Amino acid sequence: MSISGIGSSHPESGENIWTRRLVLFLRVMAVLSIAKGLYHWAQVTGFVGSADEAFENQSTAWQAATVYFAVIELVAAVGLWLATPWGAVVWLTTVVSMAVIELMFPTIYGGSLVIVGIEAFFLVLYLVLAWLAAQERPP
């Protein structure tokens, strides 16, 4: 075991616990973002849905939103997994974008308030964890 604790199998107790929890949360969100991004790509490529639900049979607004989320979710996933500031920004963009589409353009994805609630829950959880992690840092 080194003096700084690097390489130790036992992290220092109490130090940076909220930062570690924030990073864990970001990694979980990265996995969810990968799943969501791959789902959107599956919609684009036709791996999911029936022939009536095929990408080319959808409205232009639906197509644009689906391609947007197919790309941005995977970009966000990389940044979240690496716990970079830009990853959190891109992820926040996806959360806000999905909420706006669901609330203001319900004809695109159906206007599900459940989706908006889930996205809002994750957003609030992120903000709380980020605030608590910031409180751990010395002034």
Biggest sheet architecture: none
**Which residues form runs of ≥5 with pLDDT under 50?**
1-10
Mean pLDDT: 89
Global shape: elongated
Spatial extent as radius of gyration: 19 Å
Q: N-to-C terminal Cα separation, in Å? A: 29 Å
Q: List how many beta strands DSSP finds.
A: 0
What structural class should be given to the helix and strand makeup?
mainly alpha
Helix share bin: over 70%
Strand portion: under 5%
What order do the helices and strands follow?
Answer: HHHHH
Key traits:
mainly alpha; single chain; 139 residues; 0% strand; 5 helices; disordered N terminus
In short:
This protein has one domain (about 15-135). Helices cover about 70% and strands about 0% of the residues.
Write the layout of secondary structure elements.
Layout: H1 17-45, H2 60-81, H3 85-104, H4 106-109, H5 113-136
Helix pairs in contact: 1-2, 1-5, 2-3, 3-5
Explain what the structure shows:
With 139 residues, the protein is mainly alpha-helical. It has one domain. 71% of the residues lie in helices and 0% in strands. The chain is built from five helices and no strands. It has helices at 17-45, 60-81, 85-104, 106-109, 113-136. Helix 2 runs antiparallel to helix 3. The radius of gyration is 19 Å and the shape is elongated. Residues 1-10 have low confidence and may be disordered.
